[in-house]
């Protein structure tokens, strides 16, 4: 192999690595931004109730179901099955951070269960249950916010420093490939349909549905 060709190959590899880096990191960060956007919509719904509006509970059920399915089927497999084990393999000193993130995701799952429980109580037992639902939901949103910051700032920085080109390609393939059963077209269609229903259920100006009375 001539030197020029080797340099050319290196440049292609560097570009490949940079592209895989960027795509994989962009996917994780976009998913966190999407989750924050849905949580922000939930907080806006709480504000409407605080202003005296009567809620349409389908909006809460829709947004929370969207989060629940999104985390289980799209987001957490990327972190738990791909990113965390790879980082641990390449940088064992990140075990403390990964344990913290695993605990955080577990705590978020438990808290989300509590949110559903308090939503049900609020819906069927009445306004006396609103404050408990409100504080549980806000506590859940805070856990997810802290998680997103920790992944985006600390985990991704460590991953950038330690993962190899092959690792990034593996991550990117798993994140973006239609061949991975976790990310099949059927799931994408279910999410698209759920999202469409959400937009028409959420009150204006958050969505395109009717305004709440009050
Ligand atoms: Fe995450």
Protein described:
- With 214 residues, this protein is mainly α.
- The chain has 6 helices and no strands.
- It has helices spanning 3-50, 57-90, 95-125, 130-162, 165-176, 185-201.
- Helix 2 runs antiparallel to helix 3 (95-125) and helix 3 packs antiparallel against helix 4.
- Residues 178-183 have low confidence and may be disordered.
- Fe (ii) ion (FE2) is lined by residues 32, 75, 79, 147, 151.
Task: Offer a few descriptive terms.
single chain; 214 residues; mainly alpha; Four Helix Bundle (Hemerythrin (Met), subunit A); 82% helix; 0% strand; binds fe (ii) ion
Count of discrete alpha- or pi-helical segments spanning 4 or more residues: 6
Name the helicity range: over 70%
How far is it from the N-terminal to the C-terminal residue, by CA?
Answer: 76 Å
- Order of secondary-structure elements: HHHHHH
Structural class: mainly alpha
Low-confidence stretches: 178-183
Q: Give the radius of gyration.
A: 21 Å
Q: How many domains in all? A: 1
Summary of the model, kept short:
The chain is built from 6 helices and no strands. With 214 residues, the protein is mainly α. It has one domain (20-201): Four Helix Bundle (Hemerythrin (Met), subunit A) (Up-down Bundle).
Write the layout of secondary structure elements.
Elements: H1 3-50, H2 57-90, H3 95-125, H4 130-162, H5 165-176, H6 185-201
Helix pairs in contact: 1-2, 1-4, 1-5, 2-3, 2-5, 2-6, 3-4
Bound molecules: fe (ii) ion.
Fe (ii) ion is lined by residues 32, 75, 79, 147, 151.
């Amino acid at each position: 192999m001539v030197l020029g060709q080797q340099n050319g190959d290196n440049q292609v590899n560097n570009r490949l690595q940079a592209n895989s880096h960027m795509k994989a990191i962009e996917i994780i960060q976009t998913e966190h931004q999407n989750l924050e956007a849905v949580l922000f919509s939930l907080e806006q719904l709480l504000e409407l109730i605080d202003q005296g509006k009567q809620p349409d509970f389908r909006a809460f059920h829709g947004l929370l179901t969207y989060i629940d399915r999104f985390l289980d089927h799209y987001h957490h497999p990327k972190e738990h099955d791909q990113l965390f084990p790879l980082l641990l393999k390449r940088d064992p000193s990140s075990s403390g951070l990964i344990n913290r993130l695993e605990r955080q995701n577990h705590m978020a799952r438990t808290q989300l269960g509590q949110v559903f429980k308090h939503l049900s109580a609020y819906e069927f037992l009445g306004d006396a249950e609103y404050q408990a639902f409100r504080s549980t939901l806000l506590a859940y949103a805070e856990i997810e916010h802290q998680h997103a910051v920790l992944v985006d700032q600390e985990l991704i920085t460590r991953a950038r420093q330690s993962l190899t080109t092959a690792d990034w390609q593996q991550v990117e393939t798993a994140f973006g490939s239609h061949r991975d059963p976790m990310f099949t077209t059927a799931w994408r269609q279910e999410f698209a349909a759920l999202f469409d229903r959400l937009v028409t259920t959420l009150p204006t100006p958050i969505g395109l549905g009717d305004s709440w009375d009050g």
